[in-house]
Fold each of these.
Amino acid sequence: MAEHPTFPAEPVPEELPADELLYELADLFRVFGDSTRIKILYALHDRELCVQDIANLLALSQSAVSHQLRVLKDSKLVRFRREGKTVFYALDDDHVRSILSMGMDHLEE
Amino acid sequence: MAEHPTFPAEPVPEELPADELLYELADLFRVFGDSTRIKILYALHDRELCVQDIANLLALSQSAVSHQLRVLKDSKLVRFRREGKTVFYALDDDHVRSILSMGMDHLEE
DNA sequence: TTTATATATGAACGATTGTTCATGTGTTCA
DNA sequence: TGAACACATGAACAATCGTTCATATATAAA
């Protein structure tokens, strides 16, 4: 590395996680990085909702919601169950709530 | 949705956080949603580094690193201190490490 | 089957993003 | 001063993204 005075004794050279893992991590956070998806996740924070309910609640088109739900589903952030013609979506697990909560904590500093 | 009574006997979890807050949250996660920035954050996980060291370590141009450090700085994810001609960057606080860690946990499910 | 309803999806378009290249700013030392 | 070094920044371009629109699929009821 470059030559410059290092004041504290520097610990062992740290290694980064594998590149592939870092790409996956960025991909995951990118999913959280859109306000429509964030709104959908918060709408599902404490209950399950069907597609049209989400669209009505957030004043979005059915198509836009459906497209974004697919993204959320692919990232395993939401799960769904079909009941007749209706499909209900819910947060996949508490992990999702934790990530949202951590982000909120950072904003409130 | 439901109208809330004057004295709610139960918590009202169905309410979404204010729109502005949700936009800020999405903006925050968007910063984590790029592999270059994720790599920089991990490079700084346990030490401070100057710009050129980051560029060398991650095989990136000085300009690209500098641009991304500005994004990270604007989001309060990194802090910096100047020492002569050199500028050292470090993670701003443990919060950043927590968010990274939460994301990794989700991937490892 | 036919019709109605709920959801999913493909194409396309405008908007945003991350990089490179060139240059500007700030600091040190001769 | 002036040269050299470390870093920051503006413009521009390709690539990616989220929406709309049109249409497809799936289920239920008639």
Amino acid sequence: MKLPHDHGNCECSENLIEKMPSLEGFSIASDIFKLLGDANRVKLFWLLCHTEECVTDLAAMMDMSSPALSHHLRFLKASGLIVSRREGKEVFYRSADTEFSDMLHHIIEDVVEIACPDKFS
Amino acid sequence: MKLPHDHGNCECSENLIEKMPSLEGFSIASDIFKLLGDANRVKLFWLLCHTEECVTDLAAMMDMSSPALSHHLRFLKASGLIVSRREGKEVFYRSADTEFSDMLHHIIEDVVEIACPDKFS
DNA sequence: TTAACAATTAAACGATTGTTTAATTGTTAT
DNA sequence: ATAACAATTAAACAATCGTTTAATTGTTAA
């Protein structure tokens, strides 16, 4: 690819484009970040990394309505980050036991720690 | 906090709420993820982690209009993830040399690798 | 001081996202 | 079967976000 301006580093920038992941790759990455781009959803996922709970209790812990909560649970489940099981009238949710889910859990705790160390004890 | 339902794990869930980071903490975390919640912005940040370029060349590399690009550069700069310097008529951007910027760079490459290993050579 | 180029800003528009309200499905106990 | 509770779904609404177009600011060279 020929760039409009040449500042002597064209070799670096132009070669970079060859090595660059496809937009689809970045799109998949951004979809994952989008999942965590909502404070309530991060909080919810963090909770489900630490305990398994039914929707009613989660709604109380999150201080949210159950429809709103269901909505977020839906996304997290569709992405494979969380799993659910029914027990009688209740449905229990918890984080999926996958390498990927674990990685995001740690990223969240890293980010929260870096962003506001005093907020995390 | 008293939960509506008791499944025997109340000690776990109720103690969790005490240890839980504040919503503000999660909000700061989600703001960071929101930054990367757009494919063009992830791609742009990734590029700026690997090279320093002027807006015109970045627009060519990103296949975007310069106003659209400026818009995204603004957010990334406001968050401290990238820095800029003017040289004559041109403004050059690159990733900030901080621990935090470096961490996100690696997270992106990890995520892209996990999400689509074949997309990254 | 103009003219030309680089970059940013502002306003308008369309698309997406999250919450609410109401209706519906699924399960258990009477 | 019916009543009560748990959870999900659907439709409507408000808010946010990204792109476009047009205007503006900043810099250099003629």
Amino acid sequence: MDLSERKLKILQAIIADFIRTAEPVGSRTLSKNYDLGISPATIRNEMSDLEELGYLTHPHTSSGRVPSEKAYRLYVNQMMNKHELTMEQKCSIAAQLNDNVTELENMVQRAAHVLSEITNLTAFAMTPRKDLDTLKYINLLPVDDYTAVLMLVSESGKVSNKAVRFDKAVSEETLRILAKTMTYNYRGKTLSEALTQDIIEDVQTDAEAMGMLENNIKPSFVKTLEDMLNVNLYMDGLTNIFSLPEYNDLDKARMFLEMVNKKEDFTKTLINRENGVIITIGNENQDELLSDCSVITATYHVNGKQLGKIGVIGPTRMQYDEVTSVIEYLTDNISKAFMITGGDGDDES
Amino acid sequence: MDLSERKLKILQAIIADFIRTAEPVGSRTLSKNYDLGISPATIRNEMSDLEELGYLTHPHTSSGRVPSEKAYRLYVNQMMNKHELTMEQKCSIAAQLNDNVTELENMVQRAAHVLSEITNLTAFAMTPRKDLDTLKYINLLPVDDYTAVLMLVSESGKVSNKAVRFDKAVSEETLRILAKTMTYNYRGKTLSEALTQDIIEDVQTDAEAMGMLENNIKPSFVKTLEDMLNVNLYMDGLTNIFSLPEYNDLDKARMFLEMVNKKEDFTKTLINRENGVIITIGNENQDELLSDCSVITATYHVNGKQLGKIGVIGPTRMQYDEVTSVIEYLTDNISKAFMITGGDGDDES
DNA sequence: GTTAGCACTCATCAAGTTTGAGTGCTAATC
DNA sequence: GATTAGCACTCAAACTTGATGAGTGCTAAC
């Protein structure tokens, strides 16, 4: 059933007011502050209908109305106007973002910062998944007789490394052979393929060297690959929630911070989201703990291939229009910055 | 002036009680729960003296006494008994810490975790400063015609890298020469020396190559060096403060979290602390913002040279004895683990 | 269909009251 | 002279009470 023009107008006014004030909205306030041309009593009747239809709720009998998740969903889908950023805002954002960029990690981190500053919410930014990246070469650099550094370099220029310890002294010559063997076996494989593929025996390597490969190098190799595959998650504006009336209760603030601090869980949640601009409201979120939050994410791309995400998390009462615009502007900027030369030679500092 | 035996006993009891309950301690409670053998009235007289001497304070006229910073200082210096960890505690800590260690970063991070779990405070762990580490080799790995990865390897096995973009296409041969020149110039220099030393002209490099060194590589080189020098700070148990009555006020909790979130400032504060087990109470802390916190840090060493720190931050009311024991046990463990082979081939994942 | 009017509800706030844990002082006791 | 019992006093915290006001639903008039 479609809502009448008037009901839509009233609902929109309630949502706007509630997003601004965080207070339940009453019929009198509505008729006074919004140019609806009808009396409070009529508004009450309409609100009663809207409540029956599930768009509004009532904290208690004699309080104003609060938009439900269903209302926010309707608002986001149909009623939200495109919010244009001012020229100053755009310039300021671009300036902060592009100042002396050399690395994606850096820029992405700054995006989270800018986003949290503008929206006054908790922002996050995720570096791209490297699924399609392939191994280019593998090196073993001697440190002392028993220790070396295993170094992997990918086609896109990502470098990652870990220490390897050997049971016995190993010569530089042996290290070179081992590295050569590994490069021969893994070159051109994607990172995820390399994770599953076993080290193949090679004519040049003897039994002893093979043992080292299996027992000493393999664990570090796997960990390094996982490091390269893993996305990094930057968060900013965690303490912004203290300014929101929704979290002016210690328990709620605590729960929020504890949830967000579990970075691994949160990263998984993010990875599973679709690409593009995605808004999930309250219980639409998979994660039980996010059931009274809204999450907005958008995707940026590096070289048109690898995809990363940035976004915000906050109460269901948020400025969906403004936040969405800012996020979109940020992702556009990042995508542009890393389009031409494919400068994704990021490291993990 | 020295305190009488009895005053010391009373003060100790007050401190013990206050650390446990966080409530001002009254004379009746004291005489009931502690075997002091004197009546509340006598205790009141003694407490009055102790207050005059600056060891106790009075939140308001008719409330119990609270230990002052001076009292905590006295307690820590003279009255605190050595708290022995139980065998189970030790085993549990050692197990969590040493499970499958390959890297210092990893172990240090886990130390912060264990520490925050046991103490229910906010714990932190700082990786060692690399001042004494020297450069071993410098490499430039081609990514595409305009991009390379600059890689530095130090004597201790630390590897760090950053992307370099060139104004024009650069051949692999050129990269090799550039890397060779840099290695020649910087090998054996400590990281901090390398930061200040300029690139010296070399017979093998022509003017064009020199220009690239200056304009394209230098910025990345400096950043990479700074990355290698920089300590990493891991924090854990941030939300533990929500369980403390000291922070059951939103503003206080917020201030604490905002302070601790400024990692750079906090790192500087930590670096400036002396080595060994250091306890600073309230206003003894340099940082204004820490004026109602106590901080305990201890130092671990890697190979007897590089020094890192771990510690906790919490209200001045904390279990100084227990916390100190745990921190000491942790630093001992880390130092032991990284003593023999000097396996500090950490990276920055 | 719309609106004015009215009785009712309920969170919030301020003012007053009670309670109890604490103190300091004084006079009696050891 | 040191210790203690007794008592008047203080003050935060918890509870009570009543007023206020923003809100509702319902009904009857427009």
